[in-house]
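PROTEIN FOLDING TASK:
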Amino acid sequence: MKIALETLGCKVNQYESSAFLQGFLDRAHQVVSFQEEADLYVVHSCAVTSKAAYQTRQLLRRARRLNPRALIAVLGCDAQVDWERLARDQLATHIIGSQEKFRLWNWLEKPADVQNPVIAVSDSRSYGCLEPMPISRMLGERSRAFLKVQDGCNAFCTYCVVPYSRGRSRSYPATFVAEQMERFQRAGYREVVLTGIHLGQWGRDLEPPSDFHELLRALDRSQRPQRVRLSSLESREVTPELFQVLETLPWICPHFHIPLQSGDQEILAAMGRPYTPQQYAETIQGLHQRFPSAALGADVIVGFPGETPRQFQNTYELIQNLPLTYLHVFPFSPRPGTPAAELPGRVVGPELKERAKALRDLARKKKRAFEQRFVGRRLEVLVETRTQEGLWSGTSENYLHVVLPADSPVAAGQIVAVQVEKQTPQGLLGSCLTMAARPFGPF
């Protein structure tokens, strides 16, 4: 068969899609672009925002237009939480939930059409241990690999649908994580991102229970690529034990993403977030003191139901006063089935846009100030792609976007030492010094 696969959403989805793709190729199927005519279209969906759910439906309709006779499978989070609507709108022949997708071929072998789809969706509360998913390569031409170590979430923030779409928190054993890390090293990856739905909860469901800092200790004793990056960690999970481990592991990238969501105590409580603005600030200050050259990022939701101008200002001022270096700003997106979707007082229209713009403007200023600190300094850059301007583009260990002249003697996937020369609208411009021959050390 000709199979087209499109993936929406998080790094965990990207890892899982890479396993699906490997399965397609192992069965000698031909993988084609989602823009082409195929026999089977697979949409690995996301449900975290209304926009993601809309994009899922767009892709399903595109598949139907490209080949009305094709099988169309929608997998994962949106299929899990909104299968009834997908079936009612006749958008797919196979609607496969977050647990059932790991038995994809079992469901595809069952005859179906859009009028009578196969629906394989079970209660996420019953999900058991994680399915082993060893892979050798990432989907597409990626210079870095994503390594899923954990799935699901127990937090139940009032705005979030993920605990309903992926179930409770479950972890891969450290032995599996180390083995997968070695596979990526053998495949030639020089950077791996440890990722999960709630990464800092890794190990708490294992027997005996473990903790995320213990996973990092285990990886320090195993074979691994040159550098490892961490995805999002909650502020309360940046513990003294984790600080101690991070300070002793030079292969961990100095880049920490710590979601904030709001800088106002009342809004945090309404969100179900288990920390205060002061506690969050202490975490960020602690990271900055120990890793002064690290990138420090945050997620922020604007327009949560009931957010007053004063409460938004509390968020703005907290961010302004912290050494954060970038932000991901999200206007509140009500997700059906979550408590926040029923709350009154949503901020909408021009006011919502104004608040989002204010935070994005602040984020740009912080990012530019952070970039400027490294002009004239040496960074080690993972080379990724050629840009439309003909430059090489890559990412430094501390998450700075760096561009190199097109004639630089580099290739995608290499880590090179770069002398930063100036700041440009495209990022920091540098010149290639040498191939980086050693694991990078702390700043």
